[in-house]
């Protein structure tokens, strides 16, 4: 690859590390600053940080690759995600911002689950922290796979070295600056992704004489929209749309709502975030569609559909711009990895170490332990990512379903059901997680396949978890009076802040 592209990448890496150093000086003196940025993050940073950490490498690689292979079937995933993200901003964001602060200033999702029931050391805290570490390790490995593929296909660097380079930069600024560094880098990375996903499909389209020529070339491999709709089963459409259910339970996304500076800022963040998401998803789908047409029209050899964005970047742009587009992919990958590493480290520190340890730990030492947690999760994720045959979309879909089913229903119940009990919450988490794992790994069908080949595992997981929460709460004893008072206090404060 030309030297100009390497210069663009070097500038990007230095900028990310610079932000990490700035955040290190501004917000890492105590654990609240390291984990939540002092609950003072602007709506602009919140919106793009949530979007960038949500979309990850699958936005520029996984989703275009899915569009390239399956055609308009991938569009239903996009529709489900848009609907889910909007519902998350409306139903979860404002309430979670207030309720986590009322619940004794909870800094992590597991801590909120525990303090929602008036017990800081509730078993629910350890169980949910363990699930976060388990699924985020898998999720982080998906991002590393994307980074390894990028360096291998774009720079000719061995896949394993690509993993190490990607992880090295992310870990550096996450260790240094904590939540503020992650949010600020996400904001910059979100801007880069936005520009790249507009630029690439438009420039690729200009290679054709007309839209009809491009559509004709694409139709050789991809059926039209009507044919795609007719060819999909109801279960297939439901599985794709169900991706949106996952938003309610993604710790690395909803933690942004906990950190935003005020409830009134949520509406601004929603407008920015949804506009960003709509444009970038359309750009990702367009990249895959134009990629099919380009390959058929001009004989482009595409060995791995998930690298179509990379191929366009190398073929159609000046090396300096090509380097910028490579940085866009790294931005998507790193924004998600950093968020996941930080949430995992927060759970290890706040929800496991502090609960188990009998000693009083200083704020400074807690931040140090959090940094060790970041490194530990990173190493395990690196080992899992060593298998380059893993597809980005499949790894992401498994982790997304795990969080969506284990935590999604519980988040909603915690915010909207006054009489939810601690026992119901615990069994809701466990039942959702077990259902997803069973759906993914148990070869119960006649041909040895798993149930996830029939319907996306988040659907049964979400249903089982919701039913468990409802039934156990109905059968269990009434929550303590102080727990109900806390719920009422949070409702009152939310109404006051929204007025």
TrEMBL record:
It holds the Pfam family SSF. The chain crosses the membrane at residues 6-24, 74-92, 126-147, 159-180, 187-206, 226-248, 269-295, 315-345, 366-386, 392-412, 424-442, 454-475. It catalyses: L-proline(in) + Na(+)(in) = L-proline(out) + Na(+)(out). Its main location: membrane. It is a multi-pass membrane protein. GO terms for molecular function: L-proline transmembrane transporter activity; proline:sodium symporter activity; sodium ion binding. GO terms for cellular component: plasma membrane. Catalyzes the sodium-dependent uptake of extracellular L-proline. Belongs to the sodium:solute symporter (SSF) (TC 2.A.21) family. This is Sodium/proline symporter. It comes from Salinimonas iocasae. The gene is putP.
């Amino acid at each position: 690859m030309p030297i100009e592209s390497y210069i663009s990448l070097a500038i990007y890496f230095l900028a990310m590390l610079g932000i990490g150093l700035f955040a290190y000086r501004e917000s890492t003196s105590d654990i609240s600053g390291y984990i939540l940025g002092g609950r003072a993050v602007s709506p602009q940073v919140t919106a793009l940080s949530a979007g960038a950490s949500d979309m990850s490498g699958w936005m520029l690689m996984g989703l275009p690759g899915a569009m390239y292979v399956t055609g308009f079937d991938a569009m239903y995933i996009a529709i489900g995600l848009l609907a889910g993200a909007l519902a998350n901003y409306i139903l979860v964001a404002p309430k979670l911002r207030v309720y986590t602060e009322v619940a004794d200033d909870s800094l992590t999702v597991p801590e909120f689950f525990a303090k929602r029931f008036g017990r800081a050391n509730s078993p629910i805290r350890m169980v949910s922290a363990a699930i976060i570490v388990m699924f985020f390790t898998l999720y982080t490995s998906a991002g590393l796979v994307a980074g390894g593929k990028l360096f291998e296909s774009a720079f000719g660097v061995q896949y394993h070295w690509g993993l190490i380079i990607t992880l090295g930069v992310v870990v550096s600024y996450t260790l240094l600056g904590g939540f503020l560094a992650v949010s600020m880098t996400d904001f910059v990375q979100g801007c880069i992704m936005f520009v790249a996903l507009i630029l690439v499909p438009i420039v690729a389209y200009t290679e054709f004489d007309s839209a009809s020529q491009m559509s004709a070339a694409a139709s050789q491999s991809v059926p039209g929209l009507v044919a795609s709709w007719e060819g999909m089963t109801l279960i297939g459409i439901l599985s794709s749309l169900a991706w949106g259910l996952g938003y309610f339970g993604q710790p690395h996304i909803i933690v942004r709502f906990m950190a935003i500076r005020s409830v009134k800022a949520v509406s601004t963040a929603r407008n920015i975030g949804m506009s960003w998401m709509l444009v970038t998803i359309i750009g990702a789908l367009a990249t895959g569609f134009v990629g099919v047409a380009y390959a058929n029209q001009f004989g482009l050899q595409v060995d791995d559909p998930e690298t179509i964005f990379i191929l366009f970047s190398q073929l159609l742009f000046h090396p300096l711009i090509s380097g910028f587009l490579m940085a866009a992919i790294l931005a998507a990958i790193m924004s998600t990895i950093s968020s996941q590493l930080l949430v995992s480290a927060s759970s290890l520190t706040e929800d496991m170490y502090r609960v188990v340890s009998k000693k009083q730990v200083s704020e400074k030492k807690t931040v140090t332990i959090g940094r060790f947690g970041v490194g530990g999760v990173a190493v395990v994720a690196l080992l899992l990512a060593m298998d380059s045959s893993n597809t980005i979309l499949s790894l992401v879909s498994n982790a997304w379903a795990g969080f969506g089913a284990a935590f999604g229903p519980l988040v909603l119940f915690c915010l909207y059901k006054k009489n939810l009990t601690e026992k119901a919450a615990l069994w809701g988490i466990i039942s959702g997680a077990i259902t997803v794992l069973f759906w993914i790994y148990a070869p119960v069908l006649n041909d040895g396949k798993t149930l996830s080949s029939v319907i996306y595992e988040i659907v049964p997981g979400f249903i089982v978890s919701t039913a468990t929460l409802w039934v156990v709460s109905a059968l269990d004893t009434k929550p303590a009076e102080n727990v109900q008072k806390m719920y009422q206090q949070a409702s009152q404060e939310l109404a006051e802040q929204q007025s």
